[in-house]
Amino acid sequence: MKLILLGAPGAGKGTQAEIICKKLNIPTISTGNILREAIKNKTERGVMAKSFMDAGKLVPDDVIVGIVSERLSQDDCKNGFILDGMPRTVVQAEALDKMGVQIDVVISIEVEDSAIERRMSGRRVCESCGASYHIEHKKPKEDGVCDSCAGKLVLRADDAPETVRDRLRVYHEQTEPLVAYYASKGILKTVKGCDGIDDTSRLVFEALGV
Ligand code: AMP
Prior knowledge:
By secondary structure, the chain is α/β, with parallel strands linked by helices. It is built from 9 helices and 8 strands. Helix 2 crosses helix 3 and helix 4 packs parallel to helix 5. The radius of gyration is 16 Å and the shape is globular. Bound molecules: adenosine monophosphate (AMP). Adenosine monophosphate (AMP) binds next to helix 2 and helix 3.
């Protein structure tokens, strides 16, 4: 299954991607995680992307399209994949079409802006492996420590309230048009993003028919 998860920042795309990935045994491609890894390793791409990300802006389309086309050409993507956080612009969606990528389903996880702002202040990520947690909805076994790799859990720089508002504005202006883009192709399914992770997963699996 070739799947795209759409939704505002903090809607739960990463968390649902992780759950779907385990159930369907297909890899998740998170452009945000790939970029954060590049920043951590101080690669040329990382240094370039950091200023955009810290400001809550989108990284230029050509950089993202390059990252994703490289990743999709790897063997583990042959039987399907989950795109988490890509495409975020119509240009990126068209680039996927031009690459000949045939998407089966696009799930749009819908959450109101006010709920997003509330949620983001509780989000924590592992600075080593990028795994995502929440201080109420997805607690680690030990406070401040990643369950998978024992890395330190931190607040993402771009989850600061002012930056979240900028990211939401960018989402409405540049990413939300993709809902109509994929609806017109007949592959869009809309799911309500609930506060409970399992409640959202149930709706996602219902939409996927799995
Ligand atoms: P995320 O972890 O998906 O919320 O992404 C964090 C940040 O990485 C975004 O706010 C953007 O600055 C950048 N980013 C991730 N994916 C994309 C994309 N597909 N297009 C442009 N920028 C992106």
